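Slide 14.
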Amino acid sequence: YLDELTEGETEAFECRLKALDGREFWVVGNAVVTGSRHSGRQLTYALLDIDRRRQAEAQTQQAQASLSRIIEAAPLAITLHDAKTLAVAQINHAAATLAGRSEQDLLGASPEELFGREQGEIIRRDMQEALAAGAVTQREYRLGEGENMRVWDARFMHLAGTTDGSEANADGSPEQLLLVASDVTEHR
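Slide 15: predicted structure.
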């Protein structure tokens, strides 16, 4: 950097360092050429320990992978929604089968697109209540008509942080809403 950078120019980098106690950790840094004509060119480094951030990112990725496996393998209908738009962010096979479309077709769908205008508006209101509640919210829905009518026990839970590693909103409001539903027609 001393030879390559012009004065005042900075170069960002990441590297692994070893502390005096033998612990190795990652830092992100900036190198900038400073100095005066009298003292000659010098490099100034600004370093920030990012090891904990990297560990948290790795844990978040592991949690996301686990959640994805659970969502997909569960026999229940499970959807994960964006808290602001209520659009589907993730959906499992059981929920896609219930909606009668492919999982890919349902990504980004609104409650109205999933359940029809009338039922979708009811479910949207219930989702908004669940976001405000701070606890698991349970509802029961009758979907379909005639012999195809099914009774679904639905549970909504707001997630204060996201599974992709981003933070909750600055005011602490949830970023995602989890919907888990089971067919309870036979029980009723």
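Speaker note: The CA atoms of residues 151 and 187 lie 9 Å apart.
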